[in-house]
Design goal:
The chain is globular, with a radius of gyration of 25 Å. The longest helix has 6 residues. The chain is built from three helices and 40 strands.
Length: 668
C-alpha cells in the first residue's frame, strides 16, 4: 500500500492501522458503493443513509478531508451520493489522523479510492446486474494497448444504473464514464490521463428515511410505520453532474530517485428541489410532520489540486533512509444557492403523506420565505518531509512533519438583488508531526507504536462569537501488532488507540445570549481494533474484524455541536465477518459465501434518543465457468428491521429488508 506513506510499503511495515478492500472482495460481495464496503471494515460504519458518503471512523464523523482519490484529498461524489465502484480497484482506509499526507480532516482516518489503471495485456469485461426494487445495472471495462506494439495504453470503464429504492417514491438513474490513456515513454517514465464523468438523477438527493413517534416521557416507537414509508416528495428532483480530469506523471531517475506529480481538476453541478422534516427534537406529534421544501443549487463546486513529491533512498552508514519530500496545492470552493418555501404541516393519512402543491418555477424564488446565496473558496499550500528509516533488520522508524497554510474567504448574497449581505475570511496555519517505531523480531511479525497529529480549520472567523479561533487539532497514540501466517496467506492485526481533539469550538456557558464561543479540550475516542483475513486453504477465504470504541465529548463540541456524552452514530461494538468456500475439484467453479454485520446501540443528535443495535446476515452463491460467471447475492437473510443511523426522531435511515442481486459477467 502507498496510502500510509506514499511509498509502496508492505502494510506489515507501516506503524499505523491500514485496511484494504481488494477487487476480489468487491466482486464477491457485489459492493456497488463505498458505503456498502463498510460492512467489512473495522471501526467504520455509516453515519446516516447508506446512499450518502457519510461515515464514522473510530467514532468521528467524516468530513470532506476524510476522502482521497489516488492519494489526493477530496471526493469525486457529493455528500448525498454514495461513491460508486465502477472504476475502483481497491479501497484503503488508514485509521487515525492523517494530516501529514492528506491535509485537514477529522481524526478518524482517511478512505482512499484507488482507481483501475490501464494494462498492457488486453482484457474485456461486461457485467449485468438485476436486483430487488427493479434494479438494473451494467458495467463494462476494457483495457490494453492502443497499437499492438505501441507504448500507448488505454482503459475504458462504463457504468449505468436504473433502480428503485425501498422508498417507493425514490428512483435513481446514473451513468458513469471513465476513459484513461497512459503513455510509457520508457520503463522509467510514464504519463497517465484519466477522466471521470458522472450524471446522476434521482427523485430526491437527501433521502429522509422514516420518523419515530413520541409515546411517553422520552419514549419512542421506532417501528410503527412500514419500512417502505416515504418522506420523499414524488414531485421532487435531484440532478448532479460531475467531471474530473486527472493527470499523473512518474519518472524514475535511477534506482534511488523518483519524481511523481499528480494534478486533478473536478467540477460538479447540482440542482435539487428537496424536502426536510422539522421535528428533529420533538418527534412526530398528532400523526403529522412539519415539512419544509426548498431549492438547492451548487453551480459550480470545484477542486483544483496538485501534489508533487520526490522519493529518495540512501544510507548514512548502516542506516537506510527512504525520504519523501512534497508540495501540495489546492483551490476548492463552490457557489451555493438556497431558497426555502413555506413550512406546511402534512398529516400522515393511510400511512402516507398527502403532499402539498408547490410552485417549482424559478419565479418562486421571489416569494420564498428564506433565500440566500453563498460563495466560498479555500486555498491550501503545504510542504512536507518524511523519512522511513531502517535502523536494522528488526528496527524501523517513521518520522514526518508537515507545514500547511489555509486561506478561506466567503460571502453571502441576496438571490434576487445579488446584493452582498455578508463577508468573512480566515487564515489558518498548522504544523503536524508524525512519529512511528516498528520492531520485527521475525520477518512475519511487527510490533509498533505511533504518534500522529491532525487539524481542521474552523472555516469561518466566527467574529460574532469571539473569533477568529485557532484550528481544531487532534492527536492519536496507537500501539499494535501485525503478523503474517502460513507464508503470508493470512494477515492479522490488533491495535489500540487513544485520540483527543482539542481547541474545539463550543458554546460559552457564561454567555446568557448564547452567542459567544470558546475552545475546549477533552473530546476523546479510544478503542481496540482486531482484524484477520486471508485464506486457510485454496478453498477457504475469510475476513473477520471487531472494533471496540468509546467516545466522549464534554458537550456542545465538534463540527455538529454534539451534546454531552457519546458521539452520534458511534457504536461501542462493531463486528464483521465474511467467509467464502470455493470448490476446486468436485463442482469446480462453484463458491458459497456468508457473513454478518453487527452494530451496537448508537446515540443521536437528540439527547436521550438512541437507535438499537442490529445484526444482519448476508450470503452469496457464485459459479464460474471458463470466462463466464454468475453471482447471486442475498442480503439481510433474517429480514431484520434495522437502522443505519439517525439524526433524531424525524430522520431514521432504515435498512433494506430481505433482498437480492443477480449478476452475470463475461470477460475475455
Amino acid at each position: 500500500s502507498s496510502t500510509g506513506t506514499r511509498l509502496e510499503t508492505p502494510v506489515l511495515e507501516v506503524p499505523q492501522s491500514i485496511q484494504i478492500i481488494n477487487k476480489e472482495l468487491i466482486n464477491d460481495r457485489q459492493i456497488q458503493t463505498v458505503g456498502e464496503a463498510t460492512k467489512v471494515m473495522a471501526g467504520v460504519n455509516a453515519f446516516s443513509s447508506s446512499q450518502y458518503s457519510d461515515y464514522v471512523l473510530r467514532g468521528f464523523r467524516s468530513s470532506p478531508g476524510n476522502f482521497a482519490y489516488n492519494g489526493i484529498r477530496g471526493d469525486f461524489y457529493q455528500f448525498d451520493q454514495g461513491a460508486l465502484t465502477y472504476n475502483i480497484e481497491r479501497i484503503e482506509a488508514i485509521k487515525g489522523p492523517a494530516s501529514i499526507l492528506f491535509s485537514a480532516g477529522n481524526p478518524g482516518g482517511v478512505i482512499n479510492h484507488i482507481t483501475k489503471r490501464a494494462q498492457e495485456k488486453a482484457r474485456y469485461e461486461v457485467n449485468l446486474t438485476y436486483g430487488s426494487f427493479d434494479q438494473f445495472r451494467v458495467m463494462a471495462d476494457a483495457t490494453g494497448k492502443v497499437v499492438t506494439d505501441g507504448k500507448l495504453l488505454y482503459r475504458f470503464v462504463l457504468g449505468y444504473e436504473n433502480t428503485g429504492q425501498l422508498d417507493p417514491n425514490h428512483d435513481i438513474k446514473n451513468i458513469f464514464v471513465a476513459p484513461q490513456l497512459q503513455y510509457n515513454f520508457s520503463q522509467n517514465t510514464s504519463l497517465n490521463y484519466e477522466l471521470n464523468f458522472s450524471n446522476d438523477e434521482r427523485t430526491m438527493g437527501y433521502q429522509r428515511g422514516v420518523p419515530a413517534f413520541l409515546v411517553g416521557n422520552n419514549e419512542w416507537d421506532l417501528d410503527r410505520l412500514p419500512r417502505d414509508f416515504s418522506m420523499v416528495d414524488p414531485k421532487g428532483f435531484s440532478k448532479t453532474r460531475s467531471l474530473s480530469n486527472q493527470l499523473m506523471f512518474n519518472h524514475q531517475f535511477n534506482s534511488s530517485l523518483k519524481f511523481t506529480t499528480l494534478f486533478r481538476a473536478a467540477n460538479t453541478f447540482q440542482d435539487q428541489f428537496d424536502v426536510t422534516p422539522d421535528a428533529f427534537s420533538t418527534g412526530v406529534v398528532d400523526d403529522s410532520l412539519n415539512m419544509s421544501h426548498g431549492y438547492f443549487k451548487q453551480d459550480p463546486t470545484y477542486q483544483y489540486q496538485s501534489s508533487s513529491y520526490v522519493t529518495f533512498s540512501t544510507k548514512t552508514g548502516s542506516i537506510g533512509h527512504a525520504l519523501i519530500g512534497g508540495i501540495d496545492f489546492s483551490s476548492t470552493g463552490r457557489t451555493y444557492e438556497y431558497a426555502g418555501l413555506s413550512t406546511k404541516n402534512l398529516p400522515i393519512d393511510a400511512l402516507e403523506f398527502s403532499w402539498a402543491s408547490y410552485d417549482r418555477s424559478p419565479s418562486a424564488l421571489a416569494n420564498a420565505d428564506y433565500q440566500t446565496g453563498n460563495t466560498d473558496n479555500t486555498r491550501l499550500f503545504a510542504l512536507y518531509l518524511q523519512d522511513q528509516i531502517t535502523i536494522s533488520d528488526k528496527w524501523k522508524a517513521l518520522l514526518g512533519i508537515r507545514v500547511e497554510r489555509h486561506d478561506y474567504n466567503t460571502k453571502a448574497f441576496d438571490l434576487i438583488t445579488n446584493e452582498v449581505t455578508f463577508r468573512d475570511t480566515l487564515e489558518a496555519n498548522a504544523l503536524t508531526p508524525r512519529i512511528g517505531v516498528l520492531y520485527q523480531p521475525i520477518t512475519s511479525l511487527s510490533i509498533y507504536g505511533s504518534y500522529t497529529q491532525g487539524f481542521q480549520p474552523q472555516y469561518g472567523s466566527n467574529r460574532g462569537g469571539g473569533g477568529p479561533f485557532d484550528p481544531e487539532k487532534s492527536r492519536q497514540y496507537e500501539i499494535g501488532i501485525k503478523q503474517e501466517l502460513l507464508g503470508g496467506k493470512i494477515f492479522g492485526m490488533l491495535s489500540g488507540y487513544y485520540i483527543e481533539k482539542y481547541d474545539v469550538l463550543a458554546s460559552d456557558p457564561t454567555d446568557s445570549q448564547g452567542l459567544r464561543l470558546i475552545q475546549i479540550d477533552n473530546v476523546t475516542s479510544k478503542g481496540i481494533e482486531f482484524s484477520v483475513n486471508g485464506e486457510l486453504s485454496d478453498n477457504f477465504n475469510f475476513v473477520v474484524n471487531y472494533a471496540l470504541n468509546d467516545t466522549y465529548t464534554p458537550g456542545d463540541s465538534g463540527f455538529d455541536f454534539y451534546a454531552k456524552g457519546r458521539f452520534p452514530n458511534a457504536p461501542k461494538h462493531n463486528f464483521n465477518a465474511w467467509l467464502k468456500y470455493r470448490f476446486t475439484k468436485v463442482l469446480s467453479g462453484l463458491s458459497f459465501g456468508a457473513g454478518l454485520n453487527s452494530i451496537s446501540e448508537r446515540e443521536t443528535f437528540v439527547t436521550g434518543f438512541s437507535i438499537p443495535g442490529y445484526t444482519t446476515l448476508d450470503a452469496n452463491i457464485s459459479y464460474k465457468y471458463k470466462n463466464a460467471s454468475v453471482n447471486l447475492g442475498l442480503y439481510n437473510l433474517a429480514d431484520v428491521r434495522y437502522y443505519y443511523g439517525a439524526y433524531g426522531p424525524a430522520n431514521l435511515w432504515i435498512g433494506n429488508p430481505r433482498s437480492f442481486r443477480l449478476s452475470v459477467g463475461y470477460n475475455f
